[in-house]
Amino acid sequence: MNVLAAPFLMALPEMEAFHAYSTFIWKWCPLYVQPTMRGVHCGLRLLDLCLRSLDPTLYGYLRGKNLSSNTYAFASVMTFSACTPPLSELLLLWDYMFANGIHLNILFIIAQLALIRTELLTSASPVKILRVLPPLRAKEIINLTNSLCKNLSPELYDKLVRHAYDEQVSDQLGIRISTCPNWSEQQDDTNDLPAYMLDAIDTMRK
What we know:
Elements: H1 2-11, H2 14-28, H3 38-54, H4 56-64, H5 69-72, H6 74-78, H7 87-100, H8 104-115, H9 117-121, H10 126-130, H11 138-150, H12 154-162, H13 167-172, H14 195-205
Helix pairs in contact: 1-2, 3-4, 3-8, 7-11, 8-11
């Protein structure tokens, strides 16, 4: 929460910052601040789907290294990229995001991947690069984001727009959110799991 509040406090007087922050949290991304973080998990799934659609080569390479958005993008999705410096560039991104929709943060992250695409594809261990994303470059990220928007299918883009406040999106994507510590109950996507894990999950759910 502090990471999300800080940019508002840097740009606005305290009372205005509180009002803007409250509106942002409770009106535009209420599913992000639920205890289960349903919106965050939905955003991560959509990031994978968007990357697979927009850049199947990069998506396939990362998946081949056992890397999904849960591995490298959780903090960026959860904080709307506020975890990546510098703050001056973040404020430019947020100006654009608030003007055009907070769903664009998912595409901001894909744009950041695009800026280091060659490094990722030529690295034997891309996870080392993805542990800390490079400093934000707002102008380039926004330019790439505009292009990314044009290349997404209407159906996927619609889910992207609604995922932060509409629970139906997570239901449509098959995301199962549970507070249960049982690992089998937390497997919200079994499409990529090997047979032995599917068998174990089926057994534990009976």
